[in-house]
Amino acid sequence: MLQLRRISKRYMTNEFTQIALDEVSVNFRENEFVAILGPSGSGKTTLLNIIGGLDHYDTGDMLIDPKHISYPVSRYLAGYDAGDLLINGKSTRDFKDRDWDAYRNNSVGFIFQSYNLIGHLSVLENVEMGMTLSGVAKATKKSEAIKALERVGLKDHVHKKPNQLSGGQMQRVAIARALANDPDIILADEPTGALDTVTSEQIMALIKDIAKDKLVIMVTHNPDLATTYADRIINFKDGHLLSDSHPFDGEKET
Ligand code: ADP
Ligand code: ADP
Predict the structure, then answer these.
(1) Which residue intervals define the domain ABC transporter in the entry (predicted)?
(2) pLDDT tens sequence across 57-69
(3) SS3 91
(4) pLDDT tens digits for range 151-186
(5) Is 20 touching ligand 2 by the criterion CB < 6 Å?
(6) Are 170 and 115 within 8 A, CB to CB?
(7) Are the C-beta atoms of 4 and 27 separated by less than 8 Å?
C-alpha cells in the first residue's frame, strides 16, 4: 500500500549537505507490523516523517555544490534521478499541500516517544483532537473517541488529565488519538522509549493487536522488542536499508 522509490532527503546547512536518506526503495503492505532499527542519525525519523507527509522528499530540483558535500555521494555528481512515494499505487510527485493535508489527516496516525498530549485537556478531549482536522461532527467525535479509549483499555479514565496518568496510560491515550480517525497507517517513533520494560511489553502487545488491520511502521532502539513483536525488521544505516527480514515487492500498482 506504500511504495518508496529511490526516496532521498538532504539537508543543506551552512557548511555541508547532510544526507538523511539516500535513495531508499522499500514497499509496505497492508496489516504488517514493521520495526525499523538503526543507530541515531541513520535517517529513521526522517523516513517516518516522509511516509507520514510531515516532511517532503527531495524532488530533484535541489542545487548541490560538490565542494560542500561531506558524504560519499559520487552518484549525485553524475546526475540525480528524483524519487517517488506511491500511496495505494498513486504517485505523490504532483501532490499539492491540500493533498498532503488530506492524506495526513485521514490516512495516518502518529505515535511519539513523548506522547505529545495536551496537558490542560482531558483524556477524552485529547483523543477528540485526533479528529479535529478531519471534519467529523462533534457527537461522532465523542463516540469515536470513547470507542478508541475502550480499545486501549482506558474507558474509566476519560475525564482525567494527562498528569493524573502513568507513562503507559499516557501512551495509550496517544494511541487512542492516533486510532480515532481509523487511519490505514500508524507511524510510531520510539513509542516505548520512555517506558519501563513491563509497560513497554504491554504497549507493544497493544500495537501488535492494532497491526492486525493496519500497517504499523515503528522506529525503535530496542531489538528485543522488535524481534518479539514485529512481523518484519528493517535495519537502517547511513540513510539506507542495511537489511530487511521480509522484503516485499509483489505489489500491484493499481
Ligand atoms: P532521534 O535520534 O530520536 O531521531 P535526534 O536527536 O537525532 O532524534 O533528532 C531529533 C530531531 O531533531 C530530528 O527529527 C530532526 O528533525 C532534528 N535534527 C536532528 N539533527 C539535526 C541537525 N543537524 N540540524 C537540525 N535539526 C536536526
Ligand atoms: P534517526 O531518526 O535515525 O536518529 P534522523 O532522521 O533524525 O535520524 O536524522 C538523519 C540525519 O539527518 C542526521 O544526520 C541528522 O542530523 C540529519 N537531520 C535531520 N533533520 C535535520 C534538519 N532539520 N536539518 C539538518 N539535518 C537534519
Answers:
(1) 2-254
(2) 987 655 455 555 5
(3) strand
(4) 999 999 999 999 999 999 999 999 999 999 899 999
(5) yes
(6) yes
(7) yes
- For the full predicted model, state whether its pTM sits above 0.90: no
- The residue nearest atom 15 of ligand 2, judged by CA position, is 41
Contacts for 123 with CB less than 8 Å, ≥ 6 apart: 149, 154, 157, 158, 159, 160, 161, 162, 165, 173
- Among protein residues, the one whose CA lies closest to atom 17 of ligand 2: 20
Nearest Cα to Cα of residue 210 among 233, 236, 178: 178
Q: Is the CB of 40 under 6 A from ligand 2?
A: yes
Dist CA 11 CA 33 (whole Å): 29
Question: Among 45, 112, 192, which is best to mutate for testing ligand 1, by the most ligand atoms less than 8 A from CB?
Answer: 45
C-beta of residue 57 within 8 angstroms of C-beta of residue 40 = no
Are 10 and 62 in contact, with CB atoms under 8 Å apart?
yes
Query: Ligand 1 atom closest to Cα of 13?
Result: 24
131: its cell numbers: 479528529
Which residue in the block uniquely carries the three cell numbers 471534519?
Answer: 135
Contact yes or no for 94/87 (Cβ under 8 A): no
